Structures are given as C-alpha cells and as structure tokens.
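Dear all,

This email documents one entry for the complex benchmark we are building for the journal club exercise. For each entry we list the sequence lines for every component of the assembly. Then comes the predicted three-dimensional structure of the complex as a token string, followed by one or two observations. Please use this as the template for your own entries, and keep the labels exactly as they appear.
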Amino acid sequence: MKITDKDVAYVADLANLDLTGDERARMLRDLNSILEYIERLGELDTGNVAPMAQVSDRYGVDESRHGSERFAYAIREDVKDGLRKSLPHQVALDNAPETDGTFFEVPKVIER
Amino acid sequence: MAVATIGDIRGAIAERKTTATTLAHDFYSRIKKEDLEIGAFLTLCKERALAQAGRIDAMAAEGKPLPPLAGVPLAIKDVMMTSGVRTTAGSKILDDFIPPYDCTAVARLEAAGAVLLGKLNCDEFAMGSSTENSAYHVVRNPRDKSRVPGGSSGGSAAAVAAEMAVAALGSDTGGSIRQPASFCGVVGLKPTYGRVSRYGLIAFASSLDHIGPFAKTVKDAALVLRTIAGRDPMDSTSAEVPVPDYVAELEKPVRGSAPALKVGVAKEYFGAGLDPEVRAVVEAAIQKLAELGCEVVPISLPHTEYAIPAYYIVATAEASANLARFDGVRYGFRAKANTLSEMYRKTRDGGFGMEVKRRIMLGTYALSAGYYDAYYLKAQKVRTLLTRDFDEAFKKVDVIAAPTCPTPAFKLGEKVNDPLAMYLADIYTVTANLAGIPGISIPCGENHEKLPIGLQLFARHFDEATLLRVAHAYEQTR
C-alpha cells in the first residue's frame, strides 16, 4: 500500500505541519520506504494476542480489582492528602513567548 | 589528573589530596581543550558546578562524611531538565528554554554530591542513532573523529570516552545509551522500565523512554544507578521495587556460583547483517563468560526480526502525541503569524528538524483513522510477542549475551540520507525497550581499525544486580 501526495498533505494537516514542497517530496519517499519495511508485521498472526501499551502494567496492575481500582499502584502518595503545590504563576509564565502578565497571549482565534 | 573513577575521586577529596573545586576547574580546562573538535557539550553550567564543588570542599574541610558521589564531575544529556540551566533537547524549538525544575535523576545525583559540569549534545528530541540530527552541531567519535559517536546520547558517550566527564546520564528509547556506548568504547546501562524516574525527562516515547548512566567502568555505572534508582511520586510508572546495593551485588563472584549462572545466546542476534569482525569479537567475549564459570545455553528469540517495524510504529505514535505540546504558546520558539492555526504550523515547521518531522508524520499516520488497527494496534500486539520471547528465554537463562550493534561506528554522513538504514542500526537494542528489560553495553574488543565493539547483556526485569555482576566479572578479565 503506497501513500500518495494527498496522504502526506492530510497527515501533515493533522500534525499541524505545513512542510515545504521539498519536504513533502522527501516525506513521500521516506515514509513509503519505511512503511514497506513495516508491512512485514502482517506476516504474524496476532488474532489472539493482547496488545501491550505499557511495561509497568506487568508489575503494577491488580487484576483482582475492577475499573480504575486496577491501577491503584499509580496513585501518588503526595496527592492522597490533598493537592501538591504547583508551579508559581510567574514561574509558569517565564518561558512564554508572549503574555499579558496573567495569561499566555496568542493570535486572535475568533473573527468577528 | 590521574584519578579516573568515582571511587578514586571521592577518596582523593576525603583524604584532602585534591578538592572538588580543583577537579571541576581541571575538567573545564579539558573540555575547553578537547570539545572544540568533539562537540559533546551544548551548555556549561560553571556557576552551579563551582557552588556545588564549594559545598563538598567545605564538608571535606570539616571532616564530615562525604556523600557517595562527592565532587564527581558528571554531565547530563540535554533532554533532562535542569532548573535555571538552558535545556534544548537538541532542538531549536527549545533554544532559549530555561526549565523551572530539575529532573529527578539530576536532583538525586546532586544530592549525592555530584558536580554537574554541563549539558550534552544529542539527536533532536533523542531521535536518531548518530547525533547528526542535533540542531546545533555534530559530535565526533573520540576514537576516530571521522566517525559518529552513535546516538542519540552521542554527547554523553563522547564526553565519557574523551574524559571530559567521569560519568554521564543519557536516555535510551531504542538503544540511545547502549549503541553510543558501544561506538565510543564505554559502559552504557539502560535499566528496567520503572527503575529510574522519568520526571523531568523531555518525553519522546513515554512507554519506551529510560534514563541511565554512561561510565568508564561497570562499578561506576552501578554507583550512578544506585543513586538515581527508586520510586518517585512524580512518575507514576516508577516502580515500588526496593533498590539493592548494586555495588555490593557486583562484587559477588560469578565463578563458583551454584548453580552456575546461565548465559543465553540467541541465534537471531547473530544472523545476516552482523559484521564478521563484530561477530568474532562478541563470540570470543561469550567464550570468556564460559571460562568464568557461566553455562552458555543456546536460546531462541523467534520474533526478533519484527522488533524494528514494531518499534518504529510504537515510538513514532507516542512521539507524535508527546510533541503536540510544542505549539509556541507556553514555552519555546514562536513564529510570527496572524492566526492561531498559522502560528502552530509556522512554529513547528521552523522549530523542528527533518527527522523529528518525519517521525511525527509516521506516528500521526499510524494513529490516523483507518490505519490505527493495521499499524498501531498491530505493533502493540507484536510488542506482546517480543516480550513473551524474553519471558520464555528467562525461564531457562539468567542473562542473555549479544552484540550491541551490527557494526562498529560508521562514518559521519554515511547514513543521513537513508532513514531506514539508520533505523536498522538499532536492530539489537530496541527489543529491550519494548519489553522493558535491563540491558548494558560493555567494551569487549576492537576491529582491525581499532574501533570499539560492545558486548550487550540483558537480564530479567529489575535484575540489574545480576546484569552488573556478570558485566563486572567479564570486565575484570580484560
């Protein structure tokens, strides 16, 4: 299954990238070469295999419990008794390209 | 400056033969002399280093007991946040980023007395196998300056190899500690997933990212691991598993261990594509392990050939999500634009390099409607199969031995225009990230051009103790 110029444009749009004409041409070539290599995964029968998203599930999850209780291991000690201190407001703004001192500023979103 | 290991340095400071401040100055002089050509460092943090060295010297002067890494000059891959010290992840999009807090592993090193010299060059967002994807400059392999140091932690490996730092931290998502360690002839350890907190590590692929040490010796790597390992409430995937005294563990003899330690050798790691000289040197190293009293057992890891395709789906899918945060709003580079959407696009287009864009594109494609099952879900299922391969193998053996890389360090520029060839440099390392098992690369010889070759060892989840013990025993035979 070869991807096309149209696919590259669609995926770039999803990823919030514009890409130059040259980059799109390289992307088309490189992605097709990588995807062709990846096709070999199709050789494996994985019909009865469960997907693995996380290594930590192997030692943390309590299968005898239900729902989010299964992940009780991941609940942080420091939030059991209320919220931890967060970054001071000013510190959180320090790296921002543009602020008004209270909020991050961005170009206008809604035209009217 | 003759002292080389962590133990030597701490001892010399305790006995007042030198001071942490003198040492820090010595290392900065060496960096000034060597690094112009090598390019391992991106940022030096002299003020912070000398303040810490001063604290250690004051303790030594008062005769107080010194912490385990007292005065030891270390350096940090620039994907780990350092409060008040510029952290770029090798990317122009974070060119002026000053983190508001420290990465847990970094904070633990400093709490143990280490002196942080500076931040080390790497592939942009740790995406690469040669450090040629750094947005700043290339790193040259100290063993042969026409060659790459490996990647993505190329600066970390080169800094330790060129003795510009006694040890360093790197990150390993698909081999980025072990492969450069192999290329530069140093020790590189990727611990078990969950052994070391990822808090403050700039995320590439969260289920595959690991922090670990580079050092000249296995014992030094063990000392650093002992310092940075253990549960951290700030990373919910860091494990509540006790941290053994790795240094005491590695001193336990391998010879005479009853029953004998079993070392598995998987045929899939010695197939087509393996350089004949690398094969010969690694096979000789495995023979040494047998002479040390280990029982060498042939095993099979049958799904190995599917590791690279599965890895490049999982890693890029996670990366495409993680890197969505770089939008020019809260930190980092922002491009001038009239609308919000245009700002996002121009910022990302101008801020990211080609390899990062390529991986975001591949990951976005693999997660997009209509392709999710065929790519991402399929890769996650293959990840289960690859992990089962190791589970089966570790029923029979305690450690698995393999080459770290199919070839020694390649030439600068050799693979930059062929991303697939670059990805295949990780063929022996990515499975340990998918399965989360610990792996180490230790120098085991050279080819005819004097290029270092690495022996890679794997062990069961959280069994770094056995991994380090076998690695240390092997190291003592050289």
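Observations: DSSP finds five helices and no strands in chain A. The helical segments of chain A are 5-14, 21-38, 57-60, 77-80, 89-93.
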